Amino acid sequence: MASFNKTILMGNITNDVEVRQAGERDVAKFAIAVNSPFKKGKVLFMDCEYWRGGGVLDFLQRGTPVLVEGELDQQTWEKDGQKRSKIVLNVSDIRLVGGKKDAAEKDEFIDAF
Fold first, then answer.
1. CA–CA separation, 109 vs 38, rounded Å?
2. SS3 (DSSP) at 55
3. No. of H helices and E strands in the chain?
4. Is 58 strand, coil or helix?
5. 81 vs 112, residue with greater confidence
6. Nearest in space to 66 (alpha carbons), one of 36, 32, 91, 41
7. How far is 5 from 28, CA to CA, in rounded Å?
8. pLDDT digit string (tens) for 35-49?
9. Strand 18-22, strand 82-96: pairing
10. How far apart are CA 43 and CA 111, in angstroms?
11. 26, 20 Cβ separation under 8 angstroms
């Protein structure tokens, strides 16, 4: 049986982007808040990692509306003798989804490839 792992979310960035060195590459870490279309007041907070960097990081800041596409990854680690895990979205594409004014000032679509 084949497997498929692709996720698309649209929401607002909840924190300023944190860029760290990971080996020879940079990784940008941020989170987005996604409002549920089915349950009023329900919000999903998703941690995201973007390994491609580039000029897009100049546009990512708290409150920026984005559409992110990528693959879900379950990260596991041990802390104080307890196993822990969380789900993270490894982002492959980012779209800025602001209004027309924002689109004129920024690239409307930023392809991560």
1. 27
2. helix
3. 1, 7
4. helix
5. 81
6. 32
7. 21
8. 988 889 999 999 999
9. unpaired
10. 27
11. yes
